[in-house]
Amino acid sequence: MIYNTNCHFSRIRIGTNPWSHHVLGTEIPAEEGGNATSKYTDYFGYEISMLKQVAKILNFSYVILNPADGKWGHVELDGTWSGLIGDVSVGAFDVIVSDIFIIYSRTQVIDGSVTFDMDYMAFVTPMPSPLPKFLALVQPFHAFVWTTLVASVFVCTAVMCLIARGRTRLVGDHDAGGWTSFSAPFWFCYRTLLYQSPASDRSDGLRWVIGVWFAYCLVMSSSYSGALKAYMTTPTFTAAINTLKGVLDSGLPWSMVLYGEEEEAMMAQSTDPIIKKIWDEKKVEQYSPTPKV
After folding, report:
1. Model confidence over 227-245: pLDDT tens digits?
2. CB within 8 A of 53, min separation 6: which ones?
């Protein structure tokens, strides 16, 4: 609630714009007398309740009007104030109500009451949704882990193949001869990873590599089984959008209602790349006193 300190009238001129849940009213059609400064009737809301109590205690009457431009008020390009702030600063209104923000520039032209409410600006985003069940087979591991797992099969295959070829040529290890081609060690690594039982004839020179691979497969398989059980029994949701960068990364479109407040100018002038992109690529929604649900 903002007031003009030179207000000494028995009939107070109240300026307002409807804004849920502070001030709401019924719109007056043009054919019934509605005009630029008298757009609503039957006002209600908690700031209207406060106004009625103050009027009763201080014994004054009032009339509620609206700013002709429909704005709350900011400094225009010509240096003048618009909206509710402009009207009360020049004496067109005696008091203005309805979620009036107290910011430094406004305190240079108007005086405010004690603060009785706090407000903040935030993006409203969809609730996280459950991930589809067809992702159950791949969801337990992160993409990096899957990439590492696939790469490890090829790395182990190459190591086994090189060791087998070296032992066959250098020491005549004929048991390793079947492992000199790429296919034999590859299928061995693949089947072991799936808990299959490969053939048991091995070259002595390959046993240490096979032992390390068995231990690796045991760890990875156990981790995957546990994560898969947890995923199937515990609902998993998409990541919540908690930051402005998250809004951009989500791929969702975003929209804003522009109603002439200072934060709009701050966003338009910001050099932060995230805020700048949000401002430049926004979709402008029409103002509505109440949320559209």
Report:
1. 888 777 777 777 888 888 8
2. none
Q: What is the pLDDT of residues 154-205, one digit of tens each?
A: 998 888 888 877 777 766 656 555 677 778 888 888 888 877 766 555 566 6
Q: Please report how the helices 273-280 and 262-269 are oriented relative to each other, as an axis angle in degrees rounded to 10.
A: 120
Residue count (the chain)? 293
State the Cα–Cα distance between residues 112 and 96, nearest whole angstrom: 10
Q: How does DSSP assign the chain, residue by residue?
A: -EE-TT---SEEEEEE--BTTTBEEEEPPGGGT-BTTB-EEEEESHHHHHHHHHHHHHT-EEEEE--TT-----B-TTS-B-HHHHHHHTTS-SEEESS----HHHHTT-EE-------------PPP-BPPGGGTTTTTS-HHHHHHHHHHHHHHHHHHHHHHHHHHHHT--GGGGGGSSSHHHHHHHHHHHTT--------GGGHHHHHHHHHHHHHHHHHHHHHHHHHHHS--BPPP--SHHHHHHT----EEE--S-HHHHHHHH---HHHHHHHHT-EEEPP-SS---
Q: Concatenate the DSSP letters of all residues of 160-181 into one string.
A: HHHHHHHHHHHT--GGGGGGSS
For range 279-291, the mean pLDDT: 79
Amino acid letter, 113:
S
What is the predicted pLDDT for the residue at 289?
64
Lowest mean pLDDT among 100-109, 164-173, 230-239, 279-288: 164-173
pLDDT at 6: 46
- 85-106 in b/e burial notation, b at 16+ Cβ within 10 A? bbbbbeebbbbbbbbbeeeeeb
Average pLDDT, the chain: 82
